[in-house]
Amino acid sequence: MGADPAKIILPVPQEDFDWSFANSISLQSALENFSGQITYHLPSHELLQVAKFTEISLRPKNSQEPVQGPTVFTDGLGRTGKAIVTWKDGSEWQVLEDHEDGSAQLVELRAAIMASERFSQEPFNLVMDSAYAADIAQWLGHSVLKEVSNAALFHLLKTLWCAIQARVHPFYILHVRSHTNLPGFIVEGNARADKLANPMWVAPQPDTLVQAKASHGLFHKNAHTLQKQFQLMPTEACYIVESCDDCHALAAPLLAGVNPRGLRALELWQTDVTQVAKFGRFKYVHVTVDTFSSAMWASAHTGEKTHNVIAHWRQVFAILGIPFAVRTNNGPAYTSQKVRQLLHLWGMSHKFGIPHSLTGQAIVEHAHGTLKRVLQKQKRGMQGETSHSQLAKALYTINHLMVPQNSNNPVMLTHQLSLQASDETHQPRAKVQV
């Protein structure tokens, strides 16, 4: 029968054996019933004297669980030789970059060396998406190197082995799969290292459909405008508008009417007043529309008297220009002496619609509806804003963003192009009062 030895002599320090015994179930099982003596010194045999010059440790340098310290991500790309080390320092990401010629495995080893040397004086967690480099870093610390024919590989292995042997603090190795969409800091850091190593990576191109939805959510453009601006299919643009809660609840717009229209910009305007109750004391909104380009301007006032009409037109002159003629109803504000003097001063003729007819000003009535619908759609993002701010956003949307069904350009661009195409002799001339 076999018998346990009376004495076991180990050529290691006692603290290393104690650590191994506490962390190894196999060692605990083997020594469970051992009643002999364990000593820690070298026998006098000449063959074992070499141990005096060889440091032997049973305690590995790497930890089996994460350590308290920075989390470092590495990656490398063989075709470019770029080795990347990145980690988060507070709220800022830091990056180290180096170069190694050869295969992807050699570049990954270079990145592991960079991380080990950078964090040689503190514990750290090393995250790698290369199983080859992770396995080597995991086991190299308690391995014996054998020189191989690949000089570059041996140099990297030796450098990494020396860096591990020189460590005082533990480190933890974690291998993760690359190109995964799982949430979390580990995946985020690994993806960042991968992007930094890849020279072909560029910022992701924005999703056109997402952009169109965001733009509609801010300005509530119509489907035709979304289709033209973002090069969408008609069904995609219609779906965006129909799925919008603010737009879906509103009725379809009225037809623009068949009133006489100008043949170029500034040939004929229509002006009228509508009321927007939510504007309070500024509920009287004066609206002017160019009958050729459909360019519109509106201003909020406290009434619909002559001085309000004049103040509104002076704003429109500054925005759209000076027309040849303006068409209004025959209300007292438009037939007053002061209005006639203003139109005469600026060289404009005055036309009146059919008295008591709802269709005499059909184009500007359609503009009223358009303006009110845009204001209603945009009210969710304009709480607390003044009436003038709400009008400004709505008018910007109508004039600069919306594209009519019969055009490829926003109405303000159509207005400006028409002015550029007109001969200077066709432009209205303002009279000078003497």
Automatic annotation (TrEMBL):
Main enzyme class: transferase
PROSITE patterns: INTEGRASE, RNASE_H_1, ZF_INTEGRASE
The RNase H type-1 domain, residue ranges: 66-202
GO molecular function, one term: RNA-directed DNA polymerase activity
A biological-process GO annotation: DNA integration
InterPro entries cross-referenced by the UniProt entry: Integrase-like_N, Integrase_cat-core, Integrase_Zn-bd_dom_N, RNaseH-like_sf, RNaseH_domain, RNaseH_sf
Integrase catalytic domain residues: 256-418
Annotated ranges, domain Integrase-type: 207-248
Source superkingdom: Eukaryota
Keyword vocabulary terms for this entry: Endonuclease, Hydrolase, Metal-binding, Multifunctional enzyme, Nuclease, Nucleotidyltransferase, RNA-directed DNA polymerase, Transferase, Zinc, Zinc-finger
Enzyme Commission number(s): 2.7.7.49
PANTHER family: ENDOGENOUS RETROVIRUS GROUP K MEMBER 10 POL PROTEIN-RELATED (PTHR41694:SF4), ENDOGENOUS RETROVIRUS GROUP K MEMBER POL PROTEIN (PTHR41694)
Protein name: RNA-directed DNA polymerase
Organism: Zosterops borbonicus
Lineage of the organism: Eukaryota, Metazoa, Chordata, Craniata, Vertebrata
